[in-house]
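Take a specimen:
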Amino acid sequence: MGTVFRKTRTQPLPAGAELFTRAGQQFAKWKPAKGKARTARVTTSEDGGLRIQTEAATYTAKFRDGLGHIREVSTGCRDEDAARSILGKLERRAELVRSGVITAAEDAVSDHQLEPIADHFEAFVDHLRARETSPVRIKNMRSQFNRIKSECGFRKLSDLDGGVLTKWLLQRETEGMSAATRNGYRETLVMFANWCSAGTRPRLMGNPLANVPRANVKTDRRRHRRAMTETELLKLLQVATLRPLAEHGREAVSVDAHNSEATGKRRKRSNWTYKALTLDSLPAAVERARERLAKNPDFIADLERLGRERALIYKTLVLTGLRRNELATLKVSQCDFDGPMPFVTLEAGNEKNRQGNTIPLRLDLANDLKGWLSDVPNASTLRLRDHSANRETERKLFRVPSGLVRAFNGDLRAAAIPKKDERGRTLDIHALRATFATLLSKGGVAPRTAQAAMRHSNINLTMGAYTDAKLLDVQGALDSLPSLSLNSSPLTDQATLRATGTDCRKQWSSTSSPKDSPNNSPATGFRGLSESFSDLASASINARTGLRANEETPANPNKKAPFAGFANRASKVGMTGFEPAASTSRT
C-alpha cells in the first residue's frame, strides 16, 4: 500500500535567525526579505553545525511499481487528497504492468510525459557530451531546438508532432530559408526524438517526427564552390604577401576624379579617398609604404611578416586539404619537418571526424614552414601567456585571424580574381580545400588515394562535391584513347601485310563472303584469324630484328634470334581473350 508525504530537507541557518526552545525542541525564527516571519526546527549536521529543517510545499507519492521496485514520484499537489488521487492512478498502472496488460516500457513512457521537454533535451545534451560531440555542434543544436520549441509550442514530449514541424519548415521555406538550413533544424529534432525512443527505459514509444520529409538540397543549393586554377593561386599568393604593406602605400585620389572615372558624373562636394590596389600597382604601393613608414622599421617588419604568414596559410590549406579551424588549432609541437617524410599530426578533438590523423607535407611546403618558424628562437618549446585564461599555452603554427574571410576577399579583389564565375560558383576559404581535391584528380592521383588525402568516409564526396570537373583535362583524356579508324586496321591493311611478308591469302576478313570461306562454320573464320594473328606477329618481329625465326645471329652462330619460335607457339595456342594464354589453352 502506497503513501503520500512531504519531503523534509535541511538548509543553512538563516542570517540573523533567533533561536528558542519549545517542548524540548530547538527552533529558529527569522524574517525573510519578502513575506511573513517563519519558524523551523533546528537540527545538527554531521560537522556539528546548526541547520534548519523544512518541509516541501508539495506531496510525494511512495509506492511499489509493476517491476516490484519502490519508487517515489512527485505529485506536484499541495493538497493531500489530490496527492492520494494521483497515488491511486500510479498503483493502478503498476497493477496493469504486473498483470501484463501494458509493458514496463509503456509505463515508463507515461512517467516522462509530465516532465518539461527542456529537461529531456538537457539529458540529450549530456548524452552528446558523453559521445564527445563538438561543443560548436552542441551549441548549434541547442539554438535550433530552442527556436522550434518556442515557435511550434512544444512544451512536453506529448506535444511533439510531425505535422506541426512540417508546417513550420514550409513557413521557413516561404521566408527564404535554404534547404540545407531547414534540414539542419529537422535533423536536430529527429535525433532528439530518436534518442527519446531508444534505450531500456524509453521516453517515447516511437519517433513522431520520423516521417517529416527532408528538403532537396540539390534543387535549392545556395552556395556552389569552385576550385582555383594554378594561375589564380600564384596571383593570390603574390597579393597576400604584399598587400598588408601595400595598404599603407595606396595612392590618394579625389572622390570627384574617382567617381568621374567610374560613372562619368562629377560630384559637387570634393573629398579624398585611396585608390584600389591591383596586381600591377602592388610593387609601387609597397615602395611608397616603405618611404612613408621609413621611421618605423619594426612596423614594416610586422607587416611583411603578416603578409608572409597569410600567404603560407593559403599555401598550407591548398597543399594539405586542412580545414580552417583545423589549421587554427595546429601547434608547433604537432609538426615534424626533419624526418624522412615531413608531417603534421591532428589531435582527435580538433578534427571534424574526431579521429585524429597524420597529414603528410610536401618538401617545399615543409621547408617554407621550417623557415617560417626559424624566425622565433626555440619555437618548438616556446610557450605564450594566455591572459584571458591566465595560463601558458603552446605556440600555434599560425595566428589564423577571425577576419580571414574578409582578408581573403580583399586579396581576391586585388588579384582581379572574380568572387563568382559565369556559372554563379563562389570562392571562399573552404574553396581552397576543393582546390586541393581538384589538383589531386588533375594530377592523375587514384580516387581512393585522393579520398584518403581528403579524409572522407565516402568517395562520392571526394569525387563529386569537392572535385571541380571544369578544371579536369577531359579533352586530353579523350586524346589518350586509341585511334579506331574505320578505313584500315592492322589486320585488313593489305599494304602493311605485303611489306611484312605475310601471306595475304591467310588473312581472314570480316568482309569476306561466307561462301568464299572453306568452311561456313564460325569456327573456321576464327581459326583463320588465329593463323593470321600468328603470321602477323612473326612478320612484325622479323621486320624489327631483321631475322627470321630460328635463324642464327651473325655474332653468335649458336644463339637464336630474339623471340624465336614465338610465331609457332602463337599458332599452336591461338587467341584466348584478355587473359594470358597458357600452353593448354584452346581456341
The CA atoms of residues 487 and 493 lie 9 Å apart. The chain has four domains: 1-98, 117-220, 227-330+400-478, 494-573. The two ends are 92 Å apart (CA to CA). The first strand starts at residue 3 and ends at 5.
